[in-house]
Specification:
Layout: E1 3-5, H1 7-13, H2 19-31, E2 37-40, H3 41-53, H4 59-72, E3 74-76, H5 80-93, H6 97-108, E4 113-115, E5 124-125, E6 128-131, H7 140-145
Parallel strand pairs: 1-2, 1-4, 2-3, 4-6
Antiparallel strand pairs: 5-6
Helix pairs in contact: 1-2, 1-3, 3-4, 5-6
Length: 146
């Protein structure tokens, strides 16, 4: 089963945020086979911004962190088709365009899960279910993967 990571999960794994979420994100990513994880390219740009802005690391460190993620997992580019679907998600479900694009790319990459805390936990679209790994109620989909 393929899954996509949202920027917030990657940010926590990089140590940006509270200790509990950071450790949970690192543990989760280490547990899932790397071949099952995809990264929408959008998330790498957002991670760079988070590392420079929120974590206040230098551009060289941010670049190295982003390239390390790209070396470790498959990166999926945004297509025009994904953008059109993202526009639909924005219009039909009120999602912000960049979040919608991440979900749309995950759907095009045939993922079953998008790990994120930024969407409604359990929201399903085109076969992709958003799972908040920090939720007090564990996801059966995620538990089945682990």
């Amino acid at each position: 089963m393929r899954l996509a990571l949202d920027t917030n999960i990657m940010g926590y794994a990089e140590g940006v945020g509270d200790a509990r979420r950071c450790e949970m994100a690192r543990s989760l990513i280490a547990t899932i086979p790397a071949g099952q994880i995809i990264l929408p390219a959008q998330t790498l740009g957002e991670l760079y911004r988070v590392l420079i802005g929120t974590a206040q690391v230098g551009p060289r460190h941010a670049r190295e962190a982003v390239l390390s993620w790209a070396d470790s997992f498959e990166v999926i580019d945004s297509t025009w088709s994904a953008f059109k679907s993202a526009f639909d998600l924005g219009a039909d479900h009120g999602l912000q365009i960049w979040d919608a694009l991440i979900l749309s790319v995950a759907a095009e990459a045939m993922c079953r899960i998008l790990l994120s805390e930024d969407f409604q936990d359990g929201f399903t679209w085109r076969g992709v279910t958003v799972v908040n790994p920090f939720s007090s109620k564990p996801s059966p989909l995620l538990e089945g993967l682990l």
